[in-house]
Amino acid sequence: MFFDCSALFIGLYASYMAKCDADKFYTYGYGRFEVLSGFVNGLFLVFVAFTVLSESIERILEPPTVSSDNLLLISVLGCLVNLFGLFSFHGDMEGQNMHGVFLHVLADTLGSVGVIVSAFLIENYGLYISDPICSLLISGLILAASFPLLSESATILAQHSMKPPKFFKGAK
Asked: What is the pTM of this model?
């Protein structure tokens, strides 16, 4: 939650700063704040993905007993809130800043879907291993989604004129 709140704050701050006029310190204006925000949010996503990945590996090796009382209801409500946020940000995907914010909301939505799936499997079939497996899959999806953002924003920040390597398919 700390990284999600930080990502939203950074995105909001960058959107505000990008609208500021040029001055004697930033003679071309503050537009790069949005690119920098996208890069920082991409780094946050990688950190979150690796944290979830490491915790899911620990839980695969030793699956915990998860109490599923009200878990399904709460995760469905959380997913609905995240879906609302996802569709709200989807219309405004211009630039790395909003792309980074969108990916954080997407990661939360994927997390909610993973909790719904694992809660259902735990409640109905006693499959406690489903929780770390869902987390493992979600961390992979978050990593895959964050690399194009990192590549594109790093290319812009470095003022690189060549095409990025082919393994960053989402980069331009």
From this structure: 0.82
Long-range contacts of 91-97 (CB under 8 A, 24+ apart): 95/34, 95/35, 95/38, 96/34, 96/35, 96/37, 96/38, 96/39, 96/42, 96/149, 96/152, 96/153, 96/156, 97/11, 97/14, 97/15, 97/18, 97/33, 97/34, 97/35, 97/37, 97/38, 97/41
Range(s) of the domain holding residue 148: 2-157
Q: What is the pLDDT of residues 85-130, one digit of tens each?
A: 888 877 767 789 999 988 988 999 999 999 999 989 988 898 889 9
> Is 170:153 a contact under the CB 8 Å cutoff?
no
* Alpha-carbon radius of gyration of the chain: 18
For the chain, how many structural domains are there in total?
A: 1
